[in-house]
């Protein structure tokens, strides 16, 4: 048992070599995530633990849809800390990814997400996942899907949900008077980072749900809807909620959004 534990730790460190490193707060009661198809949640620009923390608490404790198994924290220099939260069960497992540098651009953020998922595959033997991203987290997840396609290194993505993601950029000029950094530059309409989203084909095995709101002044419906131009129609579903009071950050605190995610990801499998 001791030799097996040591071997797993060695593998975990080898996976993320170079600019990335991995550490663990605990290796006791490691959840058997491979027994499920886990869903990975990634926050957006300036996001924190709370960006998905309350939603995942509802999923686990209010709706009983599954349990949060892992939190991956990625430091500004790319160091990854994986924190185990549960022992696993037969229900869907939730995995939250938190980037310390939450103003980093699309490319760097997608590379960090790729390193987390690479570790998830190698250390936990996870071969298939779902991805959920809010705001820029949806764009970063989309970039991961188009750039990191080696199924030998990364889990295969079955379903992808984007929530309030401005795929055509943020149209409000006032927004950029108060927000800055590489990510803000990438989120400007007609940026080179947004143009790159149109390059490469989208994986034909991934089903997509795109969620927006008429009350979102950051990711307005027109910008959210730009995603439909980049994904084949037979893989794509979009819901724009007609609610002028449902703002950008409120999207991940809304029970209708909760239900849309549940229906798309798990209802057919329950």
UniProtKB/TrEMBL annotation:
Signal peptide: none annotated. Keywords: Hydrolase. The keyword DNA-binding does not apply. The keyword tRNA-binding does not apply. Transmembrane segments: none annotated. It comes from Oceanobacillus kapialis. The lineage of its organism: Bacteria, Bacillati, Bacillota, Bacilli, Bacillales. SUPFAM superfamilies: alpha/beta-Hydrolases. InterPro entries: AB_hydrolase_fold, DUF915_hydro-like. Pfam families: DUF915 (PF06028). This is Alpha/beta hydrolase. One of its GO terms (molecular function) is hydrolase activity.
